[in-house]
Amino acid sequence: MPTAELPPLTGDMTMSQVLQAYPGAQRALFARYHIGGCRSCGFQPGETLAQVCERNENIPVTEAVAHIQESHKGDASLQISPQELEVLLRNVPDLVLLDVRTREEHEAVKLPGARLLTQELVQEIFTHGDKTKTIVLYDHTGARSLDAAAYFIGHGFGETKCLTGGIDAYSTEVDPSLPRYRIEIED
């Protein structure tokens, strides 16, 4: 399978641009350098990657770029397309499909057979779950499910994937009968 070309990434890109091109960049920077995971180590969307590297122990920009790109490749290996999920839903009767969205989102619209991921369900799966079964996690747009997939994989569930583009992509690419929505944040 040919690998897709990585999007350009340079030190003069703003963190907003970096995150647009590499959605997992914040997770990658936090995991290696403790950057961007909390208020004390956070960054502003308008800061450049070079500025963030400089104020965090002068991390070489080329090193940070290489790490973000390598993490991006790892993220891609955890993803499953909406079309691939459709095939799994038809052909794998014991597929574990987990919704990492809020209860309200889950109750409004969900994929067939999906269970809302609660802390109780996580404990049940970690205690009694079959680590060889395929697990697919999804959220609204595919941004948060990668974190959840990494958490499951870290606990030995090696057949864990996340839905690229979330339920929104599934609705547009596979099942248009699923209502689409957008999240509005109140000020």
What are the SSEs and their pairings?
Elements: H1 15-21, H2 25-33, H3 49-54, H4 61-77, E1 79-80, H5 82-91, E2 96-99, H6 103-108, E3 115-116, H7 119-128, E4 135-138, H8 145-154, E5 160-163, H9 166-173
Parallel strand pairs: 1-5, 2-3, 2-4, 4-5
Helix pairs in contact: 2-4
Describe the structure.
It comes from Prosthecobacter fluviatilis. By secondary structure, the chain is of the alpha/beta class. It has 2 domains: 62 residues, no CATH class; 95 residues, Oxidized Rhodanese, domain 1, CATH 3.40.250.10. The chain is built from 9 helices and 5 strands, in the order H-H-H-H-E-H-E-H-E-H-E-H-E-H. Helix 6 links the parallel strand 2 and strand 3. Helix 2 crosses helix 4. It is globular. The termini are far apart. The model has no long low-confidence stretch (mean pLDDT 91).
By CATH reckoning, the class of the largest domain would read Alpha Beta
Largest sheet: 5 strands, parallel
DSSP strand tally: 5
Oligomer state equals single chain
Strands side by side in the biggest sheet: 1-5-4-2-3
Global geometry = globular
Summed over residues and divided by their number, the pLDDT gives a mean of 91
Counting DSSP H or I runs of 4 or more residues, the number of helices is 9
**CATH superfamily name of the largest domain?**
Rhodanese-like domain
- As for the CATH topology of the largest domain, it is Oxidized Rhodanese, domain 1
End-to-end Cα distance, whole Å, is 46 Å
Order of helices and strands: HHHHEHEHEHEHEH
Helical content (DSSP H or I, runs of 4+): 40-55%
Radius of gyration: 18 Å
Number of discrete domains: 2
% residues in beta strands: 5-15%
Would you identify the regions where 5 or more consecutive residues have pLDDT less than 50?
none
CATH-level-2 architecture of the largest domain: 3-Layer(aba) Sandwich
Structure class: alpha/beta
